[in-house]
Please model this.
Amino acid sequence: MQIMIVGAGLVGHYLCEKFSIEGQEVILIDRDKEKLQRIERELNIMTVHGSGASARTLAEAGIARTDLFIAVTDSDEVNLVSCIMSRQYDVKTRIARVRNEDFLTPGVSLNEEALGIDLIISPDWAMVEVIIKLAHASEAFYTSEFANGQVLLIGYQVHEDNPFIGLNLFELKQQHSTRQYVITAIIRDGKTIIPHGASTIQAGDKIYLMILKKDMGQVEQLFKIASHLPRKVFIIGGSNIGYMVARQLEELNIEVKIVEADAERCDFLSENLGQSIVLNFDGLDAHDLLEEGIEFADLVISVTGSDTTNILSSLLAKHHGAKRCITKITRHDFVPMLGKLGIDVALSPRQVAADMILRYVRRGSIISVATILDTDTEVMEVKVPDHESFNQVPIKDLACPSGVLIGVVVRDQQAFIPSGGTIIKPGDTLVTFFTQDVTKDVEDFFSPNE
Model:
């Protein structure tokens, strides 16, 4: 498949890296020649110097042979114009990143359908969606949906008081005889472990569970975890993200205080929010934060335009007793170290947006692929092909690539947690979990030559 990406920023670079690893033919267009040269040295891709909104540049880059077109520059206009220009060619899928909310509102004249673009994605909206999901799963540091919302992949930190520390997965299975979950990965000391029966749970581990969404409460009970909606939330930063999160939290009847240093922005927030209390001071002012009760906050969400302010305000809140913090950070390479500092969840808007784009991309029998943030693992939804090697075969007898876990089977639109003896059938959808180094092997395995 030939993929053309316009924009060599963080999102574009990340997508190039992902598709290159998968063996796709990638063409990257950008106006920054030095940036293109640097990326071309790092990755096995072709680069073209020029504007994505130029018909000549697109033609020279090979738009006529392109299957997937993704425009992710910092300019809404360039992204939209380049996608619209690609319509005269036989491009199967067009994706544009935008910031203007007008393009994201259903029913407006300039939406996806009117523009002929398959997916319009906003990093801000993507961040809001993730933050609200994390607010519902208050004990989780990661949550994501699959199989049309029936399946959750959810990440929990194993604290020192967890009763299952020292137990291996076989012992856990004996205690939890009903199959309501699959432990798909253990992150320990920054390394990913695809677990087996003898793998043990240790304090400080991050574990990823694949569960049915309807069973989340029961699974949390099994693991002595109690997620609940926060009662008091502080939002540091009245940006678009902070504003949109506050609006959604208000709908859940949560007490919200939003801190913003800019007086004019505070006026906007006061006029457009309902019950939220808008506070006009710096998010690093400890005295003012304590006066407003930051130490009693169930959740602090730091989403200013400054990574430094977001990190320091989160650490300040945690130091004074806030229970949990979600921190926006632009520099994705800083994310792994923030957990060691005590920050509960670090989110990169561009990384979240890139992940949503990857989910949307569909390839053959592969329904969707999602990279799990800050790990070297992926989740793939794959349709079981109509091939004799998959017909009436128990999962334990499938010759899957090493390290692949099948967490969920979807049959007749109903999801269930399988066992090794579960018989799969052509047409089933499997939600699988594996490390990125076997991505191509997994795709090849589930796309057998007829």
